[in-house]
Amino acid sequence: MKIGVLNGGGDCAGLNAVTRGILAGAAHLGVEVIGIRNGWAGLLENRTVRIDYNMFEELIGTGGTALGTSRTNPLKRKDGLQTVVNNMTLLGLDCLIAVGGDDTLGVAAELWRNGQKIIGVPKTIDNDLAGTDYSFGFFSAVDEAMRMIESLKTTGKSHGRVMVAEVMGRDAGWISAFAGIAAGANAVIIPEFQSDPDEVVRIVRERHNEGKSSTVVVAEGVKFVSREKAERDEFGHELIAKAQGETNASWLARYIEEKTGLETRATVLGHTIRGTAPNSYDRVMTSLLGLKAIEAAHEGRYGIMVSIRGTKIEEVPLSEGVQKKYVDPATWNEMKKFFM
Ligand code: F6P
């Protein structure tokens, strides 16, 4: 049996660990694994690498992806899907394990609908995939964001300043909410709910009157600044980090300073939280996800996504992997109780 593995979309902590998990399982099952370079681009251009457990043994704790990734969308290329199918046949792949977020898994689901044997593994720091409790990479990104927000808080306290941190999360505010709570931020603004900068101003002012400085977190997906002219990737998403002009953080910092007269500073954490090494949760869960994916491939269960359900790894239909998951009102109402 010969199985291909590809990583698509934004990188995250745990991608090498999941490949290692797949390779550990493959070693036990006597399955050959081929690494596809740079996401779907590798299957359009036939760029592959032979991989085995020995090559990934020491990579469990590394960030990024040794296979490489890209935001290439075969559905946007002329005859893209057919080229992918042809190359899978040429490579003699019995199955393809696609590791990615909703974009990558969307292409995977399309291939499955077109008769290809596909298994999905959900990853994204944004944690916005419905078919899994958590997507791997999320908690490592949250840990890194938490550490940086804490640093901002420390310097903010020293100077009596308001600190505003902008955190990744294009459509969903999961990272901002979790990191904000974990770091003890005083206000968090996420894209799912109406963003009221005056509510932030009220919190900051009240805290100042009590002799306290404030730390504010804003998700990059919030629309304080217009990005209508922003460049888009092949899946149609705004390239927020490439947008010109003000960021949410700088806009909000200026607003707070104007309204309160308090010295305010803005920081965009950006890609730093994505490049971090996986924490223990992401190392262990990816290892189990990898094992489950190769086991499903070996036993001929295709069109599925392996997913985290509590402490267990389960299989769900691949079509669920492309559904989005946002911070829901009930969860947010609880979380908000910490922002004061
Ligand atoms: O992978 C998800 C994500 O990190 C989003 O949070 C962010 O908006 C986007 O990717 C950034 O993409 P790129 O690395 O292409 O700039």
TrEMBL record:
SUPFAM superfamilies given in the database record: Phosphofructokinase
Indicate yes or no for the key word Cytoplasm. yes
Query: In which pathway does this enzyme or protein participate?
Result: Carbohydrate degradation; glycolysis; D-glyceraldehyde 3-phosphate and glycerone phosphate from D-glucose: step 3/4
Q: Which GO terms describe its cellular component?
A: 6-phosphofructokinase complex
Spell out the Pfam families in the cross-references: PFK (PF00365)
Q: Which InterPro entries match?
A: ATP_PFK, ATP_PFK_prok-type, Phosphofructokinase_dom, PKF_sf
| Transmembrane region(s) | none
Enzyme's top EC category? transferase
Any idea which GO molecular function terms this record carries?
A: 6-phosphofructokinase activity; AMP binding; ATP binding; fructose-6-phosphate binding; identical protein binding; metal ion binding; monosaccharide binding
What biological-process terms (Gene Ontology) are attached?
canonical glycolysis; fructose 1,6-bisphosphate metabolic process; fructose 6-phosphate metabolic process
Name the coenzymes or cofactors required.
Mg(2+)
Can you say what this protein is called? ATP-dependent 6-phosphofructokinase
Origin organism is Candidatus Sysuiplasma superficiale
